[in-house]
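RECORD TYPE: protein structure
NAME: Secreted protein
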Amino acid sequence: MLAAGLVLLSLSSTSPAIIQVADSPPRFDIAASCRDVGKSGIDIGRPARACQGDEERARAALTARWNQFQPGARTACVESASFGGPPSYVEVLTCLEMKEP
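PREDICTED:
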């Protein structure tokens, strides 16, 4: 537990870990976000086209609503969408909607 706290403290005190969010939605590579969609061992899942359509709709919604979300929520959601692989507009939008009052 103490080790985890020290790791978090060291991460929070370094400036490269901080991602500044501009006054406009982030720019993500939709192709990278959807690259591995539909590739599974048993050949089930959504086609990449469906993923790309979802990402484009989420990007449009973010663009239209970006200034309605709190700046702190925008920063947190963009950061969390970047963990574990290519970032996703769908993840950012879902996160922001969940943080709405």
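COMMENT: Residues 27-99 form one domain.
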